[in-house]
Design goal:
- The protein contains five helices and no strands.
- It has one domain.
- By secondary structure, it is mainly α.
- The radius of gyration is 13 Å and the shape is globular.
- Helix 1 packs antiparallel against helix 4 and helix 2 packs antiparallel against helix 3.
């Protein structure tokens, strides 16, 4: 899992956004499917998987540019940064 994604989710949690492990994995899967080449689909994939409460949307909107800026995120292959064991655990959890 990409460090930037992990740090982003940790920051959301620290700000009071409730993000479960399952939602974190859904976000990673969504990014894997959507890709990171286009900013808005990438942003939408994260927002729809990580944000459940209307009050949390503002936090997401404030934090997203801090972690992903105006440039494309550096995470072309999120699973490529995982160990084989982590990939298997993620795959099992998503079944």
């Amino acid at each position: 899992m990409n460090k930037r994604m992990v740090d982003f989710i940790r920051a959301l949690r620290a700000a009071g956004v409730r993000v479960s492990l399952a939602e974190s994995m859904d976000a990673m899967h969504g990014v894997d499917v959507i890709g990171v080449q286009e900013r808005e689909p990438f942003r939408a994939a994260l927002k729809t998987t990580l944000i459940k409460e209307a009050r949390d949307q503002k936090i997401f909107d404030e934090y997203f540019p801090l972690f992903f800026g105006s440039q494309q995120p550096d995470m072309q292959d999120a699973a490529g940064n995982m160990s084989q064991q982590q990939q298997q655990m993620l795959q099992q959890a998503m079944q």
